[in-house]
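can u do me a favor
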């Protein structure tokens, strides 16, 4: 009888331990446009790293949605259908969601280069001033904040769905397509296989404070704090910088920034809040170490706490 009672309590304890473990494990839901996940392995890796180093037991579940736009994913986050997303900074996203104030790619997303057709390549290579660059009409995604930033700085901008931008460039709907420097090097082989007349300019760069940020629902302060703590731990241990430098596209972009002489034109990010402008320097790429030719100064980034 004692053996039976002992066995009963062992079973109960095991059941309770299993239930506790299950309760401690939570799935973090994300959504992403179908077919693009492979191009953003670095960014997903940042979120996974934050969750791993946060001391919690979270698991990421990424659903790929056919035809999903950033706007649709934002609405899903607002409705609570997903738990987290990452997106290019916008004042609207910052106000609607909780923004983790650590830029995912250290600001390299705001280092914009241009892809053009070969018949416009020489004209772009001859650009030496910001006003000359403004003579080119720039193609951007329909929901990219870059369009507003460039328009506010006097550029002609043509918007279109991300999936249509290369065809729009091919059909001369605009003069040059803007991509972040690491995106351009990552995408160029596949793009040239489909559009062999497209080339990447290596003489001009437009720079403004900008990056991907992680966003969670405003009601989910616990998840916001978890991700924030995880990223701070990643910086403390060096894991973040290791992940950053080991990403092939970023490593290629950093090498290009160091070795290629470009005309670098700094413009203001007119849509960025003071809170985001004042994110700690240590979380941004130190452009002064990379650029030798600039028309204007880089904004002074001061150092607020990383907690709300």
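np, heres the sequence
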């Amino acid at each position: 009888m004692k053996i039976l009672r002992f066995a009963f309590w062992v079973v109960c304890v095991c059941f309770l331990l299993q239930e506790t473990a299950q309760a401690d494990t939570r799935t973090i839901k994300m959504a992403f446009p179908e077919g693009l996940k492979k191009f953003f392995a670095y960014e997903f890796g940042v979120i996974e790293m934050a969750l791993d180093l946060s001391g919690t037991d979270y698991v990421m579940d990424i659903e790929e949605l056919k035809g999903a736009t950033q706007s649709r994913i934002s609405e899903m986050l607002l409705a609570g259908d997903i738990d987290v997303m990452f997106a290019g900074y916008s004042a609207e996203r910052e106000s609607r969601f909780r923004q983790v104030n650590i830029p995912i790619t250290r600001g390299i997303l705001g280092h914009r280069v241009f892809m053009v057709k070969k018949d416009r390549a020489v004209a772009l290579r001859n650009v030496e001033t910001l006003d000359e660059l403004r003579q080119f009409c720039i193609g951007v995604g329909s929901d990219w904040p870059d369009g507003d930033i460039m328009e506010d700085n006097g550029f002609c901008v043509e918007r279109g769905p991300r999936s249509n931008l290369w065809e729009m460039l091919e059909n001369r709907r605009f003069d040059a397509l803007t991509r972040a420097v690491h995106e351009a090097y990552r995408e160029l082989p596949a793009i040239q296989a489909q559009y062999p007349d497209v080339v990447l300019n290596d003489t001009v760069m437009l720079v403004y404070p900008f990056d991907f940020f992680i966003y969670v629902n405003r009601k989910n302060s616990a998840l916001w704090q978890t991700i924030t703590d995880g990223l701070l731990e990643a910086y403390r241990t060096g894991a973040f910088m290791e992940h950053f430098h080991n990403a092939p596209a970023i490593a290629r972009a950093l090498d290009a920034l160091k070795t290629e002489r470009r005309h670098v034109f700094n413009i203001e990010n007119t849509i960025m809040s003071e809170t985001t402008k004042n994110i700690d320097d240590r979380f941004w790429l130190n452009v002064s170490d990379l650029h030798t030719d600039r028309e204007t100064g880089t904004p002074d980034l001061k150092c607020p706490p990383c907690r709300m």
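The chain has 13 helices and twelve strands. hope that helps!!
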